[in-house]
Specification:
about 750 residues, about 40% helix, 25 helices, alpha+beta, Heat Shock Protein 90, 5 domains, Methyltransferase, Cobalt-precorrin-4 Transmethylase, Domain 2
Length: about 750
């Protein structure tokens, strides 16, 4: 009844700036009128279109409505054909005389000017007409949107139900601690958005979330911004278009996309430590400093132009030598590339920037580029580079030169493992050229030379590594290994001891160092000194069965039988927890010790039997047991054991013309294909991953980045030598016999 009285009052005062009559729902005429009222040129706040009234006579003639739903859809389609769309309030009115009218209430729009069929219509007195250029420009200055950025405008295609209430409440509690008015009442989400965050606007008495509210708290932001996601790719090599190591479309809210993008990069990133000479403190040098990376990705997310829903996604490309982050929108506010890093700033999406600041993903607005420069410098990385035009901005973060070299070191070691020695030398030489201060590069190259008896070149590399003065004992240990292997003159033992002594002054708590030194003295028959060194090694690493075993062996040789046996028993207890092969060898050492101590044969036999039981395939244990049986005259049993070893004697180096023992034939690499799930055994662990025997001629590579979805810092935390697993073949190069595997998306354990 109230609506009927209101309409009668409108009819009684004739048409004017805020009232217009139409006899029927004519798409053309209704569209022009709604567009004009939304533009509200006279700033009267609201306009009314009454349909069913003769505009000449003011008689209520009414309209026929056969299907109310279809009528509403017709009005909605007219409103959607206006640019930007208008959302009025539609009311159906039945008067006592039995006539039906439509009342369309149109509030002044925040987003003026509107256009219908490309023309801007305005209402002047009782006339609806096309605005002049001057009048249209005035509308722009009057529009609320003229001083609101796109992220602050309402999204009339969404509702408050498209937002995640829990995310809103969590952020409200975290950032508005002084105002807890609405925290525990989910019914007041719209109040929180309006009063707490200013992320909600009313249009025609309906509350709509702003664009930034959807991007920050939406259940599915990509429903409204289809390309508003991060396209992350790890490319092989240094160019787009090659093979992809991995690809991920990162979707969700802005903060979750940033977090996931960082995790994606970290999976392929490496960290190295160095000792700062001035402070003698450890400093971590990363392939890319995390703060710089975070600021660069956040910059792309915050400053992307979300208004164009057809704009491409943010591209996050990681190459061997750099990371490139490209986003649509170019530089806003008249900024140029030369302005970046100077402190000049212009926020395309200030509401989004505030949100990211409150989430602690960025520092104070305007400092992001400056921080990127600072962090790259602190990490000893090259300065970032920027490329921009009117539509795109690209940030390029070069990797730390150490890690460009690291890639070559990794490839060089893989080449050496495959037997491609010249290729390995070339790659490692390139690594030393890129990063001449990399001790790892010089040591790896020197190792290749030493393994191929190129002693002069090996010594040059190890000396170069030693001269870097990195407070690492490794170059000295390599020089000691070289002297032991080369034995170039009678003075080599003195030089070896000099290297070990100098190394121990650098790393006095290095158990491996003292163990290697002990092995050398043992081979030189200097048993007393060897015993001291093995004892030192054991004290430094009391959980190592190898240390206890070496010390025990030496004490037996020194005829300290009781002490030696007790040390070997300790080694056995430790080895039983992890390594059956080590247990077998230690049991053989105990049998040998009791032989020297003239213990009963039955006791010695028990030790040998236990050794073979611990590892039935250990030919060394079988050989030693057979030798003991021959000594005590049990020739038949010894002969039976010898048969198990095979025709050739395993303790001698096999001759090439001797018949080989039968092995299971290797499968051909041509029978494999990318994407195939295959079973394999881990045969060795390296710092960049693991090598896996999958039954073909060459072992396959499992890179550290393909072990787990989580960031893997140490391969040994996830894998052990001898593990049986199922792997996915992700790369297959038949011509080069190269196979790369992944454990991701594969059931965990071998069954």
């Amino acid at each position: 009844m109230e609506d009927e009285d209101f309409v009668k009052k409108l009819i009684a005062k004739w048409e004017d700036d805020t009232t217009e009559f139409k006899l029927s729902v004519d798409k053309e005429k209704v569209g022009k009128s709604i567009c004009a009222f939304a533009n509200d040129y006279s700033n009267l706040d609201v306009g009314y279109l009454v349909i069913g009234v003769n505009d000449k006579t003011r008689y209520i003639e009414g309209i026929e409505i056969h299907n109310w739903d279809e009528t509403q859809k017709l009005i909605a389609n007219i409103c959607n054909s206006i640019t930007p769309p208008v959302i009025p309030k539609l009311t159906r009115i039945e008067i006592e005389a039995g006539e039906t009218m439509l009342l369309i209430k149109v509030n002044r729009s925040m987003i003026r000017p509107h256009r219908f069929k490309g023309k801007c219509f305005i209402r002047v007195f009782s006339t609806t007409r096309v605005a002049t250029l001057t009048e249209e420009n005035k509308l722009k200055t009057k529009s609320t949107a003229s001083y609101l950025t796109f992220d602050a405008l309402p999204n009339t295609h969404a509702t408050l139900d498209d937002l995640d209430d829990e995310k809103i409440l969590d952020h409200y509690k975290m950032t508005r601690k002084g105002d807890l008015l609405y925290v525990d009442d989910k019914r007041n989400i719209s109040d929180i958005l309006k009063k707490g965050f200013e992320l909600c606007c009313d249009v025609a008495d309906v509350s709509y979330p702003t664009n930034s509210a959807i991007l920050m708290f939406g259940k599915n932001p990509q429903k409204f911004f289809p390309n508003g996601y991060v396209n992350a790719i790890r490319w092989e090599g240094t160019n787009v278009g090659g093979r992809m190591f991995d690809r991920l479309e990162i979707k969700g809210t802005l903060d979750s996309m940033l977090s996931t993008a960082l995790s994606f990069i970290k999976r392929f990133m490496a960290t190295e430590s160095k000792i700062e000479p001035s402070t003698m403190l450890r400093v971590d040098l990363k392939e890319y400093p995390e703060i710089a990376l975070r600021e660069a990705i956040a910059n792309a997310i915050i400053h992307r132009d979300y208004q164009d829903i057809n704009a491409p996604s943010i591209d996050l490309y990681m190459f061997d030598d750099r990371i490139e982050i490209s986003n649509f929108g170019g530089l806003p506010g008249g900024l140029t590339v030369n302005d970046l890093g100077t402190g000049k700033r212009y926020l395309r999406n200030p509401t989004i920037a505030t949100f990211m600041y409150e989430k602690r993903w960025i520092e104070k607005a305007g400092t992001g580029i400056i921080r990127i420069f600072q962090e790259m410098n602190r990490n000893e990385s090259p300065d970032p580079k920027f490329e921009a035009d009117d539509k795109f901005l690209k940030i390029i973060l070069p990797s730390n030169s150490r890690y460009k070299a690291f890639r070559y070191i990794e490839d060089g070691r893989n080449a050496a493992f495959r037997g491609e020695i010249e290729s390995a030398k070339s790659l490692l030489t390139e690594a030393t050229s890129i990063c001449p201060e990399s001790i790892e590069a010089w040591l790896a190259l020197g190792q290749i030379f030493m393994d191929n008896d190129e002693f002069i070149d090996a010594r040059r590399c190890f000396v170069k590594a030693k001269d870097l003065k990195t407070n690492s004992a490794m170059p000295l240990l390599r020089l000691a290994d070289l002297e032991i292997r080369e034995k170039r003159d009678k003075l080599f033992p003195k030089r070896v001891r000099g290297f070990f002594k100098e190394a121990s002054s650098i790393e006095p708590n290095n158990s491996v160092l003292f163990h290697k030194w002990g092995v050398f003295e043992n081979n030189q028959k200097n048993l007393n000194r060897a015993s001291e060194l093995f004892k030192k090694s054991t004290i430094l690493d009391p959980l190592s069965s190898v240390c206890w075993q070496a010390w025990g062996q030496t004490e037996i040789r020194r005829r300290n039988n009781q002490l030696g046996i007790s040390l070997l028993e300790k080694a056995k207890i430790l080895a039983e927890q992890s390594d059956s092969t080590a247990v077998s060898w230690i049991l053989c050492d105990l049998a040998w010790a009791h032989q020297r101590f003239n213990s009963p044969n039955s006791l010695i036999i028990n030790y040998y039997e236990a050794a073979i039981k611990a590892n039935p395939n250990d030919q060394n244990s079988i050989r030693r047991y057979a030798g003991f049986l021959e000594e005590i005259g049990q020739m038949k049993k010894a002969y039976s054991l010898r048969k198990n070893i095979g025709k050739r004697k395993v303790w001698k180096k096999p001759q090439y013309d001797e018949p080989k023992t039968k092995k299971e034939p290797k499968k051909s690499i041509t029978n494999l294909k990318e994407g195939q799930i295959i079973e394999g055994k881990i045969v060795s662990l390296v710092n960049f991953g693991a090598f896996v025997d999958i039954g073909v001629e060459n072992n396959a590579l499992l890179h550290i980045s393909k072990i787990s979805e989580d960031f893997v810092n140490d391969v040994k935390d996830y894998l052990s030598k001898g593990d049986l697993r199922k792997f996915k073949i992700i790369y297959l190069n038949i011509s080069e016999n190269r196979i790369h595997l992944s454990l991701k998306h594969v059931s965990d354990k071998f069954n």
